[in-house]
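Ticket #4471: complex job returned nothing on first submit. Input attached below:
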Amino acid sequence: MLHLTLFLFFGTICVAGAINLLVQRHPINSALSLVVVMASLAAEYLLLGAEFVAAVQVIVYAGAIMVLFVFVIMLLNAGEEARSGGSRIAILVGVPGVVIGAVLVAWVLLHTDTSQGLAIGALPGGPVPIAMLLFHDFLLPFEVTSILILIAIMGAVVLASRPEAGARRKESSAPPEETRELVAAGKDH
Amino acid sequence: MSITTFIIVSIIKSIAVVFILLTAVAYSVWLERKVSAHIQNRWGPTRVGPFGLLQPVADGLKFIFKEDLTQPHVYKPLYIAAPIIAVMFAITSISVVPFGNWVNMPAIHIAGRTLGPIDTPLQVTDLNIGLLVILGITSMGVYGVALAGWSSNSKYSLLGGLRASAQMISYEVSLGLSLVGVLIMAGSLSLRDIVNAQGGVFWHFIPRWNIFHGQTLAFFIYLISAYAETNRTPFDLPEAESELVAGYHTEYSAMKFAMFFMAEYANMVTVSCVATLLFLGGWHGPIFGPAILRMLLPVMWFCLKVFFFMFLFVWVRWTLPRFRYDQLMAFGWKVLLPLAIANIVYTALVVAMRAQYPGKFF
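Support reply: We reran it on our side without changes. The output follows.
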């Protein structure tokens, strides 16, 4: 009972935050709504018994990535956005897409046997089982992913490094503003 | 323990911990003023109460009765929310800090009802991811500072907020990585387990704390990063008064300003608690005397160690000059981060060797 109440509570906050994210016109309000969405998702993970995932969700998404978002918005001093009339493609593709998705989800839910569902917290969600999965069963994919991220970091550093005196003429190939700011947060600034 | 007892005990513990934390915050301000005064050959607060001990009360009253100015150019919702966010996360993070061993009390009979027997740890809640919870909550605390800087709509505040968020994100990396060595040694994320792993002594006199147990480098990395995380000198660039007036809280007054102040000191207390738990063996220390002393001494050792770190914070602030901003960033990324990673590799290697050849490495 308590679980269901908490689930509904955080679920409502999550959906409300997501809607607010779309409705708000100021980027910083939208970014903060996304923080609320992330944090309430972390609470949902916690309710499922996945405490490690919940903590990582807060540390990585709400605490690091979204701070960088807010940082960039502050740095660019982005103002309120003008409301567009809505594009025709969004209506032509989006509405049928939402309908199809909803039908699919409903169909799957109706045709799944939920009579013997798992108890909450029945699946391992603590740090030890996850560490065993990451560093034992799936070590190679995990390391490959980290190399992928390393390549992305190196790319960002190369793009952000100041052009040298000889290469001034190639200024036109400067990186997009956003990448530079993101890296500037981590480099000499 | 019945559910009613559990709830009552939890409420009592929560109130006690928050009360103690806020008192500690008030008196660290007093400590800061006193120590800074003595470092500069002054007396500091002496007028209110003996040794100026009631000064925090007077300061609090002053903050409450001051006019709360809200500038017309601020973005109101976030301007009001920012100090609340800062102080809320600063206070919440104390909830998983253990202060001592378990407390066992026999059942009490009050008015025909039985309370207990109470069997509870000296901490609000014992989580098996305690350290991650602290890291998560402190990483959310950045929003308070960043939003205060942005919503004030003033250039000093904005610069202070930008500096603070960049600095806190940068040093959070080396702070987090410096703790990994300790986690490898303890094999757990629960703060209680980490402290329990540090019991005992080497050669009959050196305590088996992590700082003496291969994690000395990690301790200093953690300490330096912690100073940057709490925006204290020599890393207090977000509020450098000589260039930014007061940084991110320039436009704040009265109780809203006091909330940022409280958040800073509460963060200092939390960071000191984590340093004590992870590197200085938590509540471990010599235990002697009668039963009541045996119960109180661990908590006393814990408080003493935390006090040592608080004093160190103050001492460093009034002794060292401020860094330059590019030096700060270069130091964080080019010195502390590689050192922290080297420490992880070294610790992992030693632990693996110890598992491979038992008895060869202590």
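The first strand of chain B starts at residue 100 and ends at 105. Closing as resolved unless it happens again.
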